[in-house]
Amino acid sequence: MVHWLLIISGGGLGALLRWWLYEKSLQWQLVFHGIALGTFGANIIGCFLLGIFFTKVQSGTLPPWSWYLFATGFCGGLTTFSTLMLEIYQLNQKASPAFAALYVLISVLAGLLCLWAGMRCAVSAI
């Protein structure tokens, strides 16, 4: 039951941050072919943080219960695969298949890079 509460708490905070990033990207007109870049930002930030949390829990620097709060909850609420898929679909429709493919490539490469960077940051801080 405690794990559920940790996941719900972290997930709610992550979802709020995702909403804020999306709204701010619209407000600041950070839009690419009709797609607000807040989703991209949320996914990249989530990858970076997940790299940190994974490394810290694996090394024992963070207690095992923190995985539920930070990784499953917060990062799970922050990142959004379904919205990413919708944006790829919309880019394919509004812009072109080439822009959609480029967005997929950039999202995957940036996500992996940020995951790795988060792990490196966590290792250097241990």
What can you see in these coordinates?
It is a single chain. By secondary structure, this protein is mainly alpha-helical. 83% of the residues lie in helices and 3% in strands. The chain has helices at residues 2-27, 38-59, 66-78, 81-94, 97-125, and strands at residues 31-32, 35-36. A two-stranded antiparallel ribbon has the order 1-2. The two termini are 30 Å apart. The mean pLDDT is 94.
The percent of residues in helical segments reads over 70%
Distance between the termini: 30 Å
Low-confidence stretches: none
As laid out across the biggest beta sheet, the strand order is: 1-2
| H/E element sequence | HEEHHHH
Mean pLDDT: 94
The tally of strands reads 2
Give the amount of beta strand, in percent: under 5%
Outline the biggest β-sheet. Answer: 2 strands, antiparallel
Briefly note the structural class of the backbone: mainly alpha
Envelope shape: globular
